[in-house]
Design a protein that fits this description.
Largest sheet: none
Number of helices: 10
Radius of gyration: 18 Å
Shape: globular
Oligomer: single chain
Strand content: under 5%
Helix content: over 70%
Structural class: mainly alpha
Order of helices and strands: HHHHHHHHHH
Number of strands: 0
Distance between the termini: 24 Å
Length: 238
């Protein structure tokens, strides 16, 4: 990774309006958990808020915002050519952008999970931490996938939303075979392996497969983004 690129990417992420969206989504999750706990008592809404909303929606949306903010704007306005003019490996650039996106996703997408889970039901602390671990691998996979998408299209946010809502949400609940390519299901499989009290909404694929698939998507996404940047610089695309 390159420290200068990491610093510039962090400044760009924190200085954009999307930062407030990144802050708003985890706040809504935690506030909703507090409200449900206060009105309905411990244990109510645990799966719906922590698993369905937190892991299934807030986390991927945060990952989409961070990765699209880390690379997308430079691809859109053509300013990426100034960065590519520097004597830095294209894959180092991609890895640096990925690191910023992942750290932001962990902070805004994963960290609220244990807070919400422990608020909803302290007795399910083991399951909550299991889902938090699942959230970590989901964050790594989502950032790798969305970084690759951001490197290949200017409509990364639209493509990412379609993936989250249609593939992960709709088809993931209708077609059993989709679970092998569902990042949310990978997170659930790891959570299930770590705690027998973790609530699963679909059949798992096994923790070993989930971890291996996450590594493939993470490394593949970074490599593809770096390769795309190399092609971008050679053709002079904007």
């Amino acid at each position: 990774m390159n420290a200068t690129i990491v610093r510039l990417a962090t400044q760009a992420l924190l200085g954009r309006r999307r930062f407030w969206l990144l802050l708003l989504m985890p706040l809504v999750l935690v506030v909703l958990a507090v409200v449900v706990r206060g009105l309905a008592g411990a244990g109510e809404g645990y799966e719906e808020i922590l698993v369905v909303l937190g892991v299934g929606l807030v986390l991927p949306l945060v990952a989409l915002l961070t990765t699209s903010s880390a690379l997308g704007p430079e691809m859109d306005d053509g300013s990426i050519v100034y960065l590519l003019a520097k004597p830095v490996s294209r894959h180092v650039i991609a890895a640096s952008k990925y690191a910023v996106a992942l750290l932001a996703t962990l902070a805004f997408g994963v960290l609220p999970l244990p807070v919400a889970g422990l608020v909803l039901d302290p007795s399910l602390a083991e399951a909550t931490w299991a889902w938090t671990a699942g959230g970590v691998i989901a964050a790594a996979a989502y950032c790798g996938l969305f970084l690759a998408v951001s490197a290949v299209t200017r409509h990364a946010v639209v493509v990412g939303l379609l993936f989250v809502l249609v593939w992960e949400g709709l088809l993931g609940n209708l077609l059993s075979g989709v679970r092998w390519l569902s990042i949310t299901n990978w997170a659930g499989s790891l959570a299930d392996a770590l705690s027998d009290r973790a609530v699963l909404h679909s059949d798992g694929v096994g923790a070993a497969y989930a971890l291996a698939a996450t590594v493939v998507v993470m490394l593949g996404g970074v490599w593809f983004a770096g390769d795309r940047l190399r092609s971008f610089s050679l053709r002079g695309d904007t």
